[in-house]
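Human: I would love a firmer grasp of how sequence relates to backbone shape in proteins. Take your time, and here it is.
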Amino acid sequence: MPADDAIVPLIQAGRAEEAFERLMPAYRRRVIGLAYSILRDRAAAEDLAQEVFVKLWQALPRYDGRARLSTWIYAITRNAAISALRSRRRSVSMSDPAVFEEVESREAAPESGDEAAALWRQVETLPERQRQAVILYYQDERTVEEVAEMLGMPVNTVKTHLHRARASLAAAFGKAGREVA
């Protein structure tokens, strides 16, 4: 990532504050996106992103360059999101006004005719690991090796998740096409 080329030398020179000032805007959207792909809640993802950036600020002087900066940031984000997901113990009920409003707003939202939007809506329905692999590989344009490192799994497992996700998406759009015709 081009931002890494500008940020890493600052970290190595001990200029953590300046590095962080560049890091935050360069990674904000991606950190929120990864957090959202795990938590499935926009507000929780934004809150978690703030926590992640605090952790990054604290850990930045200890970044040793063994992994790419982006991979290191994604690993911290992924671990924080998984921890947050595990710590959620609340039960969600339709009697909860916030849940009811969310369901109502989704049902009332008009369907977009845009094929890309339809595809990404379908991606959201994939199992978590497949969804994460698809987002990192296609949306964030990471290599299979980078996705494997970021998700902490073997390269062949990432390939399997991507293959199954593509098959699932093809089947979903194949069925939709027959229903319309």
